[in-house]
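Why show two proteins at once? Because comparison is the fastest way to build intuition. When a single record is shown, students tend to memorize it. When two are placed side by side, the eye starts asking what differs. So, the first record is below.
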Amino acid sequence: MTRPATPVGAEHVQHLTAALDASAAAVATATRWGRELAGLLTGGARLVAAGNGGSAAQAAHLTAELVGRYRDDRRPFSAVALHAEVSALTAITNDYGHEEGFARQLEAHTRPGDVAVLLSTSGGSPNVVQAARRARAGGVTCWAMTGRGPNALTEVADDALVVASPFTATVQEVHLVLLHVLCAGLDAELDARLLAGAP
């Protein structure tokens, strides 16, 4: 007698739960990123974010939280999702090639001391890796969010959050959790600075 197959939905949740259970180090890193970002953004730095497909949606989610808010009301911060600049993106990829789509925008919009959050579930997306190289060359702090590593993006980035799941959907779901953790860390640091009377 064969055992019944695990329902598809239950299997999906099992993979997600396993990835979340293994994410303690990534949660600590995301919290640290948020706290660091609070100081950078209040000091006038800008954040840019980029990714392809589902990772583009995650990048836009992050920038929306920063320009808008995560939970509590606070001042808006400068944050741009590079894939959302459709005219610039398509002009650049047409004139300079796919790999330059994010990198050229990053070079235009950032200055030393800014932050780039770059997402790639494979860690090998050529346009994201090229953006990471351009960030490092321009003095922009580069944080990567990827699937299993090491990979081309983690090798270039200043720091990385790695979700060791073989499933793209699971990686993206955990990335969203970690982006919210980053935002919570940022808000906590802002609250602490307010209590301490810091600007």
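Second record. Ask yourself what differs from the first in the token line.
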Amino acid sequence: MKILIIEDDLEAAAYLVKAFREAGIVADHASDGESGLFMGSENSYDVMVIDRMLPKRDGLSVIAELRRKGIHTPVLILSALGQVDDRVTGLRAGGDDYLPKPYAFSELLARVEVLGRRKGTPEQDMVYRVGDLELDRLSHEVRRGGKEILLQPREFRLLEYLMKNAGQVVTRTMLLENVWDYHFDPQTNVIDVHVSRLRSKIEKDFDQPLLKTIRGAGYMIKDEV
């Protein structure tokens, strides 16, 4: 895998380049938005990791210009701006994932690996599909077999995260951090309750189950057909 890191913090960038290379990933670096846009336009990458606040050209405008040029390389946005509205803005600007600072490199690496496997067309970036289940990230519409399914906001985020990681086990810790924004375990059954509600909505009146409980590990959404 070959990635581009656009980051103006030279110390942080040097650490990332070294860490990714140790993980077997070739990493190029650009220190500002303009050079990052040039490198991203002129070279082929599997994933781009882009800081949101950059000199010369901010990260969101870099992403928007890449998309305007027809470059649909998956992008993970790094930013100290981590509120829900900030993440929504980043995703709507063309980002595929959003990781607030500070972060653990292990999580960044895992997210980059997922994006590298999911590299595809713009439609695939905006619409997740598992079997006959579809989730549109922009319109927030969910359909199965053409039938609209109405979800509460938290249920939508839960399904979005599961479908984004389709075919992989999603642990309770991953759900707490990415769906509930908890960085600790509140020792409640909030996940089980929401998974149960979500399962009843996306599987009611359908023969093929999609959402599975992996005992002792977590959950997985997968089409067995």
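One difference worth noting in the second protein: DSSP finds nine helices and eleven strands in the chain.
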